[in-house]
Amino acid sequence: MTRVIIKRCPDYSQVKAKLQESFESLHIESLFTRGEKVLLKPNLLTGRNPEAGVTTHPSFLAAVIELFQDMGLNLVIGDSPANGNTQKAAAKSGIEEVCKKYGVKLVTFSDPQKLKNTNNTLKEFRVAKQVLEADSFVNLPKLKTHSLMTLTLAVKNTFGCIVGSEKQIWHVKAITRERFANMLIELHRLLNPKLNILDGVIGMHGNGPSNGKVANYEIVAVSESGFALDDAIARLYEIPIEMVPTIFFAKKLGLTPAYEIQGDSPAVIDFKLPDGIRPINRPSLFSKLLSRIPTIDKNKCVNCGECAEHCPVSAISVALKKIDYSKCIRCYVCHEVCQYDAIKLKRKLILQG
Fold first, then answer.
1. What integer is the mean pLDDT of 120-148?
2. How confident is the model at residue 353 (pLDDT cuts 50, 70, 90)?
3. Mean pLDDT of 205-210
4. How would you classify the pairing of strands 195-200 and 136-140?
5. Contact in structure between 145 and 207 (CB atoms under 8 Å)
6. Radius of gyration of the chain (CA)
7. Peptide bond before residue 209 is cis, with ω within 30 degrees of 0
8. What are the tens digits of pLDDT across the range 285-325?
9. CATH of domain 2-263
10. 3.30.70.660, 3.30.70.20, 2.60.40.10, 3.40.630.10: which CATH number matches 285-349?
11. Cα dist. 131→114, 137, 151, 296, 339 in Å?
């Protein structure tokens, strides 16, 4: 049976020991071959201080690198941040320094290649060449909330394997929460990370993935199944699966295996979900009329233009500090990329298209 190992980890100085215990319990070394090229995919959403809980913590990454280098694995670290600049995000978040210390190559995902899909209506994805060239893919998600998917865990973290502007295309193609969740599920199923290792020592709750409140979850988690890991985290924090589209539809599709949670109970925390988030399985006329839309807080906005640059439908005017709701598709990318907490999500009576 699939296992999800949860270890209490009050601070980052204990990460290596806790992961070592988890690896030994799961016989992780047997999954890899000495000299194997392994891509580590952290969460590098944007360049932020590691203590902000936005990105995979450099101390967590260092512990993972040490354990894998002890196995004789050839490591590469890569991602495709929201702003498209991996080096810049890695420098600000402390990841670049760790890569230099351990002699691990840091790459910006580029040169998307077609990944054919024969088992779904989504016929193909365009995935970073570096992901497809690796012998193995290890997923390093961060325990955070997310304005669209409620939680960003193992399944959501694989979306970073889509290169830059290709992400914006998917927000337009998979325009509803249900479609976007199913796209993420299918991508994760196809990429099939060999291992998923969750950084939950500190993370985020509330209005994540970048402007929520720092949360001291004090856990690390390891599983061969990203679907099982995500489901286990929702169970541990008593989050109904209907609130998390990727977990809800993965179970509905039969992709979440029977699993056993082993290890420690997490610290008690007053877990806050994103404001205004609704269950995926209870649509109503009222919820269609009262839409959750992004608004610009003019007092916080610094005119950096990040929101407008990454809006997939060009609905934002930086000069006017306005959003054209006739174009807005409620993907909340603007909320995700804003580093100044200047994008707020509010319910408003508006007929959705």
1. 94
2. very low
3. 95
4. parallel
5. yes
6. 19
7. yes
8. 555 556 788 999 999 999 999 999 989 999 999 888 999 98
9. 3.40.50.11440
10. 3.30.70.20
11. 12, 7, 23, 36, 28
